[in-house]
Amino acid sequence: MRKVAVCITGASGVIYGVSLVKALSELSYRVDLVISGNARVVLKEEHGKTFEDYLSGLKNVFLHDEKDFTSPLASGSVLVKYEGVYIAPCSTSTLACIANGINKNLIHRIGEVALKERVPLVLLVREAPYSKIHLENMLKITEAGGIIVPASPAFYHKPKNLEDMINFVVGKLLDVLRIEHNLYKRWKG
Ligand SMILES: Cc1cc2nc3c(=O)[nH]c(=O)nc-3n(C[C@H](O)[C@H](O)[C@H](O)COP(=O)(O)O)c2cc1C
Predict the structure, then answer these.
(1) Dist. CA 154–CA 49, nearest whole Å
(2) Which end of the chain is more exposed for a tag (fewer CB within 10 A), N or C?
């Protein structure tokens, strides 16, 4: 079974992470999921719901505790078997930790391991505006082989509602790992 890891942190747009997990589960991926405590706070604030409200019942989704450094995902020998790691959305705090090699939780460790093992690492960074520190950290991640995707929906596919806008961004996340999907209509010229 094809496998990816998804980490969700406490930036605005936690719903992107939720939708990504749903899409991957529906595409028959095994999803190993880590949710930061701050992501739970932001989801409650933005949608008045819990992750369990959205994700219970999804197939092949396995939750790991953000404090559990003994998780198999913390090991390179396990992570190399994964097609990629998403951190979506990625807070500037988590971005800073990974860019500077600091491991305060399992998400930071997974980011570090993905970079050292050359497992594709995709960060959906959400903040506005960006400071020089944010930009430097994104450059560090890029130079280390990671991929920065902005949490920026487009309008050329003529979104009709919020779901269309979320699906565009989730589709872009899938595109960078070359995962086939029909979440948004591609530009035909
Ligand atoms: C409602 C809400 C929205 C937030 N939005 C953002 C955001 O868009 N980007 C960001 O970097 N941090 C945002 N934060 C702050 C982060 O949650 C905070 O920096 C936290 O330490 C991130 O921790 P984590 O990366 O471990 O989840 C937000 C916090 C709250 C309560």
Answers:
(1) 26
(2) C
Q: What is the DSSP string of 67-104?
A: T-TTSGGGSHHHHTTSSEEEEEEE-HHHHHHHHTT--S
- The DSSP H or E segment spanning 149 is strand 147-150
Residue listed under structure tokens 């020998």: 77
For the whole prediction, is pTM greater than 0.85?
yes
For residue 25 the two structure tokens come to 């589960």
CATH of range 3-151; options 3.40.50.2300, 3.30.70.1350, 3.40.50.150, 3.40.50.1950: 3.40.50.1950
Q: What is the per-residue pLDDT for 146?
A: 98
Atom of ligand 1 nearest to the CA of 105: 26
Ligand 1 atom 2, closest CA: 42
Q: 111 CB less than 6 Å from ligand 1?
A: no
Domain boundaries, the chain: 3-151
Q: Which atom of ligand 1 is nearest to the CA of 128?
A: 8
> pLDDT by residue (tens digit) across 120-149?
999 999 999 999 999 999 999 999 999 999
Enter the tokens of residue 158: 């003529």
